[in-house]
Amino acid sequence: MTTPQPSRRAVIRGSGSALPARRVSNAELTETVDTSDAWIVERTGIRFRHIAGEGETTATLATEAAQKALAAAGLEPGQVGLIVLATATPDQTFPATATKVQTALGINDCIAFDVQAVCSGFLYALSVADSMIRGGAADVALVIGAETFSRILDWDDRGTCVLFGDGAGAVVLCAETALDTPDRAGVLSVSLHADGRHNDLLYVDGGPSTTGTVGKLRMKGPEVFKHAVTNLAAVLREVLEKAALTMADVDWVVPHQANRRILDATARKLGMSADRIVVTVDLHANTSAASVPLAFDVAIRDGRIKPGDLVVFEAMGGGFTWGAAAVRL
Ligand code: COA
Q: Fewest Cβ atoms closer than 10 Å to its Cβ: which of 34, 250, 251, 281?
């Protein structure tokens, strides 16, 4: 018989989040957009969103979230070896916003780059950081989702502009080497997908290599909705199967916060109780890559998610891209 060997895992040791100072209610939106509080609440569950003001950017929000996550983990910026930042709204086309965050944190040398998978960005970033930690490239990683979607919205398109908000969320991943036990903490499994055939359902109509402009967000909402429910239910099942777990083992699902109706429909499809789903879409709207870590941080800080809990993250976004991760805290 072979003796079990210790293995290296990436464990979440802290989280943080940041929101722009300005909070905008549905009622305030009706002053400039042809919409109503009743329509937005009924179709999406959204009541508020935060909108970045002057001086607030993806990098400043990401930096604040990262500082809080490091404080929660009891770590100094100098201990960070890797920053992976998920965003579709970088401060500049290049360099990576991760390098701005690095400098703002006072770190002179570490690995730092952005990943772009729109609303699934945090899942992609978590997967990359998890692999790099397990492979030995870093011992401490900041995984950040940060966005300022308000800057790519067409404020004359009521079908999209009411749905999104700005914000950032971050987690600190630390390498830990131990023998495997059923309740051992760490990232247990990740499933990622992309299907570029659906580009025209959710996209930005500009870019450096095409129009030379930033462009505005365009979406065929009802079609996105149908794909979201199917893909999210499937990837949730898949990620649990990979980790030899079932829905009954899950303490909390932290989903991408796009629309209350998507969350409810996905839960129904999985036969899952709604009181195990973290919902913040009412307060933050859809913050794209920021939404999962932002919702996670809210539920950590209000005491819902506790050490030892099994948490599943899931998200779907433009591309389409979609993914899920099962994590033991
Ligand atoms: N206020 C008032 N009316 C609005 C409106 C608004 N902000 N936006 C659209 N409408 C109107 C439409 O013009 C349409 O009117 P009509 O019937 O007279 O033509 C009506 O509401 C229904 O529009 P429709 O787009 O079919 O509504 P819907 O029930 O599908 O809801 C979304 C629209 C966008 C809320 C919904 O499709 C959705 O959430 N889709 C998924 C989007 C998403 O999650 N994207 C991100 C994934 S990362």
A: 34
